[in-house]
Amino acid sequence: MTSSSSPLVAAAAPLSSPWRQFTRRFLRHRMALGATLFLLILCMAAILAPWLAPYDPQASDWMALASPPDASHWFGTDDLGRDIFSRILYGARLSLWVGLTSVGLGAIGGVLLGLIAGFHGGRVDTLIMRGADVLFAFPGMLLAIAIVAVLGPGLNNLIIAVAVFSVPVFARLVRAQALSLKTTTYVEAARSLGASTSTLMLRHLLPATLASVIVFFTMRIGVSILTAAGLSFIGLGPEPDVPEWGNMLASSRSLMMAGAWHVSVFPGAAIFVTVLAFNLLGDALRDTLDPKLKG
């Protein structure tokens, strides 16, 4: 009786949904949970910066030039008396916008090129991958500097530069998976039923690559924020008076020699913690979404 009822019990047991499996595996990463909470708070603070910032980021307090942190200015002021805490809040809006937009544009272009190269193969694959190799020949920062030097400094050109050097990495990632997926049984079955090329790529190959794309997208945001801050630091980003983390670091170079440590420490800490949080979140997503690690 027991042996005959066990299959019924097993069949009656509720199956765990993919979302529940994902949640259970993700909750095991305590550091990633902290990173996710920090990023959520940062996003909310960036959105609500006009209401949360105690001062106008461009307003100067001429009685407190480069003053250290105190009750009036939590993170101190810069050389023009502008509140650093308020400028960091507004700078978060720009840094997150640049990171998300540039990586989003790079992912769209790279995923499409990777799908085309992996699915068609032959000369199309060779042409796309040789173009990616040309971009890979330059270090990411050097390539971004060259693009901004051609287009000119500015926020939009900064986004384009960071997006361009993100395209080849997404293209190579998706192309490698498309090469192996296009010979699978379900793709061959769809092809035999008369599915078009666009249907095969977008409805059958693309969903199978999304897990890797999401993981790499998350980790790439941190790289893009760091690159954008580096470009702003050397004067190739937004205007110098714009509250952006890289600009704030650039303007603090002379003050550091005068002992105003807070002018560079707080913007630098904002960049460091944000990039670290995105990397921790990406690591957790990789461990959660990687099929090889499912047990």
Polypeptide structure, described:
The structure is a single chain. The protein has about 300 residues and is mainly alpha-helical. Helix content is about 75%, strand content about 0%. The protein has helices at about 1-10, 20-25, 30-45, 50, 85-120, 120-135, 140-150, 155-165, 165-180, 185-190, 195-235, 245-250, 255, 260-290. The chain has one domain: MetI-like (MetI-like fold), CATH 1.10.3720. The radius of gyration is 24 Å and the shape is elongated.
**Total helical segments:** 14
Share of residues in helices: over 70%
Describe the biggest sheet? Answer: none
C-alpha Rg (nearest Å): 24 Å
How many beta-strand elements? 0
CATH class: Mainly Alpha
CATH topology: MetI-like fold
Topology as H/E string? HHHHHHHHHHHHHH
DSSP strand (E) fraction? under 5%
Provide mean pLDDT, rounded. Answer: 82
| CATH-derived architecture | Orthogonal Bundle
* Low-pLDDT segments: 1-6, 8-15
Category from helices, strands and their pairing? mainly alpha
- What is the terminal-to-terminal distance? 31 Å
Shape: elongated
Domain module count: 1
CATH superfamily descriptor: MetI-like
List the helices and strands and how they pair.
Layout lengths: L1 H11 L5 H9 L3 H18 L1 H4 L31 H37 L1 H15 L3 H12 L3 H10 L2 H15 L3 H8 L4 H37 L11 H7 L1 H5 L4 H28 L6
Helix pairs in contact: 3-5, 3-14, 5-6, 5-8, 5-9, 5-11, 5-14, 6-9, 7-8, 8-11, 9-11, 10-11, 11-12, 11-14, 12-14
Keywords:
295 residues, mainly alpha, MetI-like fold
Short characterization:
With 295 residues, the chain is mostly helical. The chain has helices at 2-12, 18-26, 30-47, 49-52, 84-120, 122-136, 140-151, 155-164, 167-181, 185-192, 197-233, 245-251, 253-257, 262-289.
